[in-house]
Amino acid sequence: MTSISLWIPGPLPTLNELIDLRARWGRTASRGRRWNAYADIKRTYTQQIAALARARIKTPPSPPVIVDCVWYQPTLRLDPDNVAAGGLKVILDGLVVGGVLPGDGARIVAGIRHEFRYLRGHEQGVRVTLLQPGDLIEAWRPPLGAGHDERCYGLPDERELVWRCHRCGAMEAAEPGG
User: Fold this and answer.
1) Residue of 107, 91, 104, 112 lying closest to 6 (CA atoms)
2) Residue 127: its pLDDT value, please?
3) Of the four, 46, 69, 120, 159, which is 20 to 30 A from 33 by CA?
4) Least trusted range by pLDDT, from 13-27, 80-94, 112-126, 155-169
5) What phi and psi, each to the nearest 5 degrees, are found at residue 110?
6) What does DSSP say about strands 34-36 and 154-156: parallel, antiparallel, or unpaired?
7) pTM of the model
């Protein structure tokens, strides 16, 4: 499968914003019904992302998929986990409502990857790429030297500039910038 990408302009709601909204209840003037600000905001973002997805993604991917998110933020002010948690909720719901994914459960979404880039002057938002499970490993797998076969790939060790083979445990120095 070739990857499917979608640019979603931001800002999207953060987890703290969604939690704050969840606590706010109000009444409509006409019927005295209660409404929740969280539901209104979530519905608005979900529908916007669903419309974007329907317009840009013509052929939905076959599950399972890995959701690869590259978040573009103008400053370091917000915590990455706060940005990702709130934004990912409305993104996955929007992809489901838009018909791109049949659901957002574990049988459909095999994994989620986040990367953050802080670029002053860049448009705030997130690039969402849907990949098949094998595609992500190929995208970031560093080559390992002699003594390894195609089943070996490097995983970052706790120490800097060192990769540890997930299969045999051998360690190799990473290339500078790699």
Assistant:
1) 91
2) 93
3) 46
4) 155-169
5) -80, -20
6) unpaired
7) 0.70
